[in-house]
What does this fold into?
Amino acid sequence: MRSEQFQVDTSHRTVVDLTDRVAAFLAAQDEGLVNVFVPHATAGLAVVETGSDSDDDLVDALRRLLPRDDRYLHRHGSAGHGADHLVPALMSPSLNVPVQQGRLLLGTWQRIVLVDLNADNPRRSVRLSLLSG
Amino acid sequence: MRSEQFQVDTSHRTVVDLTDRVAAFLAAQDEGLVNVFVPHATAGLAVVETGSDSDDDLVDALRRLLPRDDRYLHRHGSAGHGADHLVPALMSPSLNVPVQQGRLLLGTWQRIVLVDLNADNPRRSVRLSLLSG
Amino acid sequence: MRSEQFQVDTSHRTVVDLTDRVAAFLAAQDEGLVNVFVPHATAGLAVVETGSDSDDDLVDALRRLLPRDDRYLHRHGSAGHGADHLVPALMSPSLNVPVQQGRLLLGTWQRIVLVDLNADNPRRSVRLSLLSG
It folds into this structure.
């Protein structure tokens, strides 16, 4: 299985578009599924439109669904950090996208994003793995 | 990788059962994972029971969790359309189901459904890909 | 495709750590993706930290997002059981984790868990399938 791991800096962004990086991992004849995996307990992945404010809407929705207050039993780091640990339950850190002839078969407006509300850890790893079909 | 794309008309349904279509894609000796992928930024997939009102409960829950009002920065199309763009963040457009001897290994009450609250686009594509094990 | 099914007793736990069981399924040279699949309509899977109260926070969040009251059209079994049927829509019953040299490529704090709020059915099946890369 071909695989690769790279780092993402999330200090200035909570929604990071990974699509170009995933596309660059693929070789011309690749066919199968590419698995994107984030080995962190406070980040998730999604396929959403970016560049038209939906990424900000997503952050707002997550803050509403998982309020950053003191309701959580898990407490350490920044205020409301317990909420960060629930993000991967709603947005899985594992995502598969079909690949044909070296291209991601995403729809026109679909982008692969990392979602990370956790300000305490700005260095994130992302692992890509190609499962040949 | 064997793959196939088909169209679904969602003009009269927000939860569309795809199970029979996915099952029909499989050949007798298939073994591996079937990936179901929806190349749209405002639809998601789920594995839920259908035909016993849980599909309507799901639509109600999504409308409650992602209210269709004017809170969203992303605005075009129908009122509340910004919410549609968050559906795939909570319900991924990519889903894998194990396959053995040409059969989906779903539980008795599990069905594969497309969830689409977006009334602006009633024509949806679904891609099926078989990863042999 | 190598696969295996085992039973989990959820009578005393709503979040069950499956990680050791999944790791034990792998052989030394395995490389690819392991698919974890729960063939039940009222349970889901997640990758979260356990043992530091986030599992209890997750149960609280699910009870808040999917209240256990009489709002659901789907009614049978225990009070609020309609909510159980929506859990797999937010937390998919299918999960893939990359594997290299027989080891799950999870992050330090990531654990694979079964989430099951349904008190009516304490016997759950979990299926593991290895897709070689």
Observations:
- The helical segments of chain B are 19-25, 54-65, 81-84, 87-90.
